[in-house]
Every structure is written in structure tokens, then in C-alpha cells.
Design brief:
two-stranded antiparallel sheet; about 40% helix
Amino acid sequence: MLDKFRTAKQAELDMLAKMQVEGKKFAPYAGERASFADAIRRDESGLKVIAEYKRASPSKGDINLGLSAADVAKMYAAGGASAISVLTEEEYFKGNISYLDEIKDSGLPMLRKDFLTDLMQIEQTLATPASALLVIVRMFEDDGYLKEMIERTHAAGLDAVVEAFDDLDLKRAKQAGARIIQINNRDLDTLGIDMNRSIEFIKLKEDGEIWICASGISEPEDCAQMNELGYDTVLIGTSIMASPDPQAKLAALVAGGRS
């Protein structure tokens, strides 16, 4: 699946390369950009929740396409989300980078969730109101380029959410300077879920790091477990988006993480 996602992004990379050759640059977003890291770091209230605007996925197909980005933004702000993850990949997740603009009125910091592999995509993200972008370790074969992607993201004033699937990914993330580490229980090569990843890997959390648990979280009890394990936050998409009442579902998950 990762190879398919990489192929799907090629047209965007070609467009960015053409812009670079022609000397064209993105105009940085001029508005306020709230700190993503500050919003998701756990505090005395317990676990935080990143709610995701997700219109489709390879494993679930279409998800509640009738909900607009603006509608979801209002629900998430009212439901107690600490931040919003916005899928911008178009082919497999029916996302669009324009959704970041549509969701910004929520006032919550946003993560651009996509399959990003090029430094130009940092500049592209800076032109949006996003506060963070996703860096998937396994998308980078070269450790030096992975490190540069993270460092350039930080230097640009954005937070890098560095995603790991296994112990090798986690080791590479730490060596590359990751400050925010996301453990994905779904292997994007196979689409299978293994919650033991989150249970085992959290033991390797170090002082100063912010840890996110992603995929497989669907009930308040799941949030309570991740809170007990010491995660700062959970990222939840499908179970909220597919709910008949996303705002109420989110509120219940938030309460679960603070129990």
C-alpha cells in the first residue's frame, strides 16, 4: 500500500518540481498558526484527542461523504477535540489540501496528514493554516533525508508528527530528531491492526517526547487504556466520522481519556 500511496503522490511531486525549476514559490500563510505540540501534550486532565476529518480509506471505503469539512470542524470544536487531523491525499482518501482552509475556523491546530516525501511539500504546507505535517518513517529509505525532512519542518515553524510502525521505524525516528512520535497500529503495507504495538512501544517513551497512538481506537475504554499507558494523545478518524452523531461520539471518547 505504501508503494501505491507513493505513486499516487507523483503528480504532486512533478508539479512541485516544475515550480522549483520555474522559480515559483508558495506564499506562506499569513494568519495565526496555533501550536500543535502544545495542544496535544497531556496535562492534569489526562489524554488529549486528535479528531480526524477522513472521507474515505482503502480499508473502509467511503466514510460519511455528506459531512462537509466546515460541518466537521464545528462538531470537533464543540466535541472537545484538542486538534484536528486533515487527510489531504486525494486518490485513496478523497482528501484535498483545500480542506485545511475550510477547517481553520474551528480555531484548533491542524495536522496535514498525507504521504509526504519531498522538502518542497514543507513549503506547500506552509502556504496553508496547518500547524503540523506527517512524516512517515517508512516512506524514507535514506536516514539523512528523513532527518533533513524533520529538521526543515521544525525550522519552518511547523511540528513534525513522525510515524512509526515497528521497532526499526521507532529507532530511526528517534535518531532523526523526532519530538512527536506517532505509533500507528495499522500496518499500511498490509492494512492489519495490531494494538500490541502501542502497548509495547510506549515503554520506550523518553522525557520531552510527545506520543500519539493512532488506529484501532474506537471506544472510550480504548482511550482510558492509552491514558493509563502514558500516551499524550490518541488520533481517531473512522469511528468518529462513521458515527451517526460525530460530536457526541467524540465527546464520549474525550471523556474516556480523562477518566
